[in-house]
Design a protein that fits this description.
The protein has about 160 residues and is an alpha/beta fold. Helices cover about 20% and strands about 40% of the residues. Helix 1 (about 40-55) crosses helix 2.
Length: about 160
């Protein structure tokens, strides 16, 4: 069983945004790039961001940049999972700090940057009951939560102009 523990400061944003244009109706979200060894993390993050845009906004989200008013591109730069505490009876990790570093840019059709954060850091602490090496498994509940939390934060930052 994995439980999320709120650290109070789960993410850090250093992005720059302009007010999104009123005529913006379609956003392309091509698959994010993955520069890490974490298998398929870019797919999980991309699908979470698309789902969040579809749920929270009026924008039509498409995978192809051809017909889009703007394009959101992301690159997963690094992922780390570090044990914070250990179970004294088993010696296994009891809680883990996960840090995902990304570069994200939303540009309009002409290339004007509407939102950019080249050093997006997202941190989450999780209590674990399985070994640390399986944290980033594709279907792990913690990995799903991390992706959903990242997507909520990113979409909010873009919409609120941070």
């Amino acid at each position: 069983l994995l439980l999320c523990v709120d650290m109070g400061c789960g993410y850090h944003t250093a992005g720059h945004a302009a007010q999104l244009p009123q005529n913006l109706s379609t956003i392309a979200v091509p698959p994010f790039k993955n520069e890490t060894l974490t298998y398929r993390i870019e797919q999980r993050l991309t699908s979470s961001v698309v789902r969040e845009f579809n749920t929270r906004t009026r924008y039509h989200i498409v995978p192809d940049i051809t017909d889009a008013d703007a394009t959101l591109r992301g690159t997963v730069l690094s992922t780390t999972a570090s044990p914070l505490t250990y179970d004294t009876s088993t010696g296994r990790a009891a809680s883990v700090l996960v840090v995902v570093s990304m570069s994200v840019t939303l540009s309009d059709r002409a290339g004007k940057v509407l939102y950019q954060n080249p050093a997006y850091l997202f941190r989450e602490q999780y209590e674990v009951s399985q070994d640390l090496s399986s944290f980033f498994e594709e279907d792990s509940p913690a990995f799903r939560r991390l992706s959903q939390d990242f997507a909520r934060t990113l979409v909010a930052n873009i919409l609120e102009g941070f």
